Amino acid sequence: MSKQKRTAALATAAALAGSAVLMAAPAAMAEVVDVNYACKTPIGDKSAVSPIDIKGVKSGSGYKITMSWQKGVSSSPVELGKGAMNPSATIRLGGADSGTLAVTGPANQEAIPANTPIKINDLTGTYTPKKTGKVTFTAGVLTIKALGTTTTCTPTNSPGPSLTLDVTAAGGGGTDSGSQGGSGSGAELPQTGPEDSALALGTLGGTVLLAGAAGALWLTRRSRTARR
């Protein structure tokens, strides 16, 4: 095998190995979590349990976060006509970030019969990472406004996160101790000659790629020494 072919083979193998490591690194972990809600309603205290699902999809420099209820919560003693009920909620952030994320959604598209568990439509919001690392998303307070009244439902069972995202802050935000960055974006190797290509380095695959490049350089130098 010629020197050029050996060098190309090593570089290809290193790139494939680095890609395999990157593909194996999970960028998100989701879990449906049962949330016990204690609701303060205009007609007294109510309680309900609903499995909560939170999903995150990359959108520009941030993420579109969607919160879903798999069961209805609370109820109304009178029928709620189409468009009469408006839900909103907060999601608690943890891990590398803190605070809350507000999510909102459309009013009910169909009438809700009296004394029937109110099914909440999916609520969405946009999360923009402020720090690099693993960020958790946990169900917070649910607010239902209908017919001039407000019902507030608060989790009482300290639910665990429904979603964990491995995010990278725009502009190189700091990483909290113990958290790891890795949304899949990476730096580029500088071009050192016309025949060089800029290879993208993932945070986990970079070491493998650099090891391959070092091996190719060693073979090239060894070949030149042998000719001398």
From TrEMBL:
Keywords: Cell wall, Membrane, Peptidoglycan-anchor, Secreted, Signal, Transmembrane, Transmembrane helix. Residues 189-228 form the Gram-positive cocci surface proteins LPxTG domain. Residues 153-199 are annotated as: Disordered. The keyword Signal applies. It comes from the Bacteria. Residues 170-185 have a biased composition (Gly residues). The chain crosses the membrane at residues 198-219. InterPro entries: LPXTG_anchor, TAT_signal. Residues 1-30 form the signal peptide. This is Peptidase. It comes from Streptomyces caeruleatus.
